[in-house]
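Budget justification note: compute hours in this period were largely spent on complex prediction jobs such as the one shown. Inputs:
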Amino acid sequence: MKVARWTRTSKLFTGGTAGVAVALACIPLVFESDVVQKLTTLLILVLLAAMWNALAGYGGLLSVGQQAFIGIGAYGTVFFADQGVTPYVAMILATLLAGAISLPISLFALRLRAAQFAIGMWVIAEVMSIIVRLDQNLGAGTGISLIQMNQYEPNFRQAYTFWLALAFTAIFLVALFLLLRSPLGTSLQAIRDDEDAARSLGVRVAARKRLLFVLAGFGCGAAGVLIVANTLFIEPGSVFSVQWSAYMIFMVLVGGLGTFEGPIIGAILLFAIQTTFTQGGPWYLVGLGATAALFALALPRGLWGTVEERLGLRLLPVGYRVVGAKGEERAA
Amino acid sequence: MTLLNAALQGVFLGAFYAVLACGLSIMFGVMRIINLAHGDIAVLGAYVVFVIVEHAGVSAFIAFAAALPVMVVLGYVLQITLLERSLKAGILTPLLATFGLSIVIQNLLQLAFSPDVQSLGGSAGALTTSSWQLAGGLSVSALGLVVLVVAVLVFGALQLFLARTRIGWMMRATAEDADAAELVGINSRSVYAWATAMAVAIAALGGFFLAIRSVFDPVSGPTQLIFAFEAVVIGGMGSLWGTLLGGIALGVAQTLGAQVHPQFAVMAGHLLFLIVLIVRFGGGRAVLRAAR
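Corresponding output:
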């Protein structure tokens, strides 16, 4: 018996993923800008789902306030661009700003448990929203456009934004992938499985959670940056809306909480639903809420978690598995 | 003296928050869960009253009395269908399930009623308009006084219920240790269901007060939840009278904040809440250490 991480399928698939990323990078060269804009939205959803899953799936931190960082990313971009910084540089700065702000917030937020953390984060997002509403330079309550983007020809602008989205998504997914596969990742998965047991074995739970929290701060900030780059207009009512948390929860719960692949599947699913029901509307949201609640109760491991369990399938392996003497495999 | 008057109005506002928070506090005290759909349930209660007023043409108070049994049944059913299952599945599941429920309630209300704002102020009679001017620029509205008195009565009745009645004893025992309570023959399922039924009924009272003091719409719930939760935390989680005081502290913070700047009202409440969290959980020391 030996312990293995890779299987033939997972090697093929991981290699394939890199191929998909390269293929995606060619999309702006081939397709119209409205397709590119839609796919940018998909990448934003993937990024958001992966970040929320990093928090909840591995850190046991259920936040309904990640829109705080989305807002910092979006408004940070507008702020830096207004100072005369080139828009795409402003976007990088705003992402760094969101990550930097997540550190002091983590110092106190991570002391809260369960519902206190969830609603505490929500209140932090509300506070940020009020601060923006009080600032005339940021358009107060009525919103603001990223006018500096007008300097680019629309097709090029859409292509640049898509490439930025692809780069951000790739960077954060690869960072999470490598993090989960490192020795640190083993302790993170131990926390996911049983926080108290992990602590008693000497895992520094607080430090590990902080790492995830800051990563998610960066990632959600990047998503906010992409949102303003993709839509060119933001208002506090929508960018700080708790609806973002609803989307994140839906994607992660349906895809598979605490699995690497699940949130990506959840994001693709939500994207498909959004494209089908373009006018949105209450019924669509009733469906989202009910599905999320049902998955939480009846299928807590989500679609991918269930597939993984039943078939022993690993595509992007972050854990280990026991390989039997006769070549039969069991999930570890 | 305007400051003193602002504080007095804050007490009345806070009594309303305390009523909103009461059900949240009960459920946390008995089951250790926070119902993220609590605010939406309060708003649902307001809509039930609204429907009765529209169809039967009665006063808002009679309509509320009719709505109360509906809400009790709803709370009972909510517990045995949804919350009971989520309780068994770990600490995050109740939050996820009730968050989903919150979105469902908001959007079903959007479908059943328009997104327009509604108010029951008009069907509550002279209560909403009369007020008295006291010496020193203080003003007392009849409605504010009624809400304050009702809040104190609700919390007092709850205290008596928990201290004197058989179901109250069972609730306290289950809250203390559900497994041990089961051993002495208490059916924790039924205790939980009654606790939720009570919580939902009191949430509906909060929704009713919301509807007669101001306006509501299908998406008013999340804000009410945040205020209710802030009241519970400020007052100390799990303490019943603490919740009443927490609600009043929140109300006073908001009305005093409004004196600084009208848009600062809600912000002041949020800041009080965050400060209480920092002080209570010792995060303050960590922040100071990092600052050095």
